[in-house]
Amino acid sequence: MERLDHVLREEEQFLDPDLSLKSLATTLGVPSRYVSYLINRYHHKNFKEYINNFHLDAFLKKAQSEEAQQKTLLALALESGFSSKSTFNQVFKNRFGKSPSQYLNQN
Length: 107
Hints:
CATH class: Mainly Alpha
Radius of gyration: 14 Å
Distance between the termini: 33 Å
Structural class: mainly alpha
Strand content: under 5%
CATH superfamily: Homeodomain-like
Mean pLDDT: 95
Helix content: 55-70%
């Protein structure tokens, strides 16, 4: 878990929109099923849900920074590791119950 956490938080590999369970496992030097087991066991999420939480946290941090003034929400989402607008909107709404623009306008 420490190595997984380091690779995602410190090395920010979650920013790669093509990150897969297999590529993450290869980076860690362990089987994919073991990475999946760790995520399920300790975070009670599947791989995609786990990685999308990193994407959302990165997006929210970017959206609250000064750089947000010069960029669109989509640009910030793509920089945060999301691979498409539809995925970003769906994941955001599932977590917060609002669209990104509604959420940011209220907060």
